[in-house]
User: Which sequence fits this backbone?
């Protein structure tokens, strides 16, 4: 390397050489800045109160092209590093006395993989002891690699029969009732599209409007 610099020093340090080095340096700085950026706002729904916490440092692999990532990673490996849960703080609410009775749910997605993901949709089968209602989150959310993304939200208006059942369930079960949510989530990524099935369960409910942890 030193011999090459000596042999080509005149060209290297001429005006043209310095220009080439300057361009290379500018491109390198731009690439590093792009690597540090988080693609949070590109596809996230406007007006969504979506928050992120860093679960692990953002990996460099996120900027690799898809054909390389498909060699390095398999969808099953990525799926094993993605976890869906109800949000720790205020995971949801049950409102039976409002003019439009409803259930609200807030989810968090932890992406411990090295791949940026986009949550395309999430299908929910909600059980208050027994099957109660089905709903879906159809907005797209960016889930960056190494982040915990919360604020993913759905509000389901209850039919009269569903309202009556939940009221009876809470009256009969009280704090011992179990809420179970069967989740089917679909993600887009540079590896392609894949689905993930998980079950979330809360061991009891509060008598107030919030679901208990």
Assistant:
């Amino acid at each position: 390397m030193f011999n090459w610099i000596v042999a080509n020093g005149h060209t290297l340090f001429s005006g043209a050489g310095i220009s080439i080095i300057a361009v290379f340096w500018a491109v390198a700085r731009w690439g590093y800045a792009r690597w540090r950026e988080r693609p949070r706002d590109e596809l996230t729904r406007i007006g969504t109160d979506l928050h992120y916490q860093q679960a692990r440092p953002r990996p460099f692999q996120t900027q690799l092209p898809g054909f390389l990532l498909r060699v390095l990673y398999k969808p099953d490996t990525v799926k094993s590093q993605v976890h869906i849960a109800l949000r720790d703080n205020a995971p949801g609410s049950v409102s039976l006395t409002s003019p439009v009775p409803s259930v609200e749910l807030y989810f968090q997605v932890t992406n411990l993989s090295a791949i940026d993901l986009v949550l395309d949709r999430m299908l929910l089968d909600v059980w208050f002891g027994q099957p109660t209602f089905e709903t879906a989150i159809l907005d797209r959310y960016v889930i960056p690699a190494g982040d915990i993304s919360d604020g993913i939200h759905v509000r389901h208006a209850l039919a009269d029969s569903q309202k009556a059942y939940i009221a009876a369930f809470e009256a009969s079960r009280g704090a011992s009732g179990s809420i179970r949510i069967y989740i089917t989530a679909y993600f887009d990524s540079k590896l392609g599209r894949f689905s993930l099935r998980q079950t979330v369960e809360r061991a009891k409910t509060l008598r107030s409007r919030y679901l208990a942890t």
Q: What stands out?
A: Residues 15-36 form the longest helix (22 residues). The chain has six helices and ten strands. Confidence is low (pLDDT under 50) at residues 38-48, 205-210.
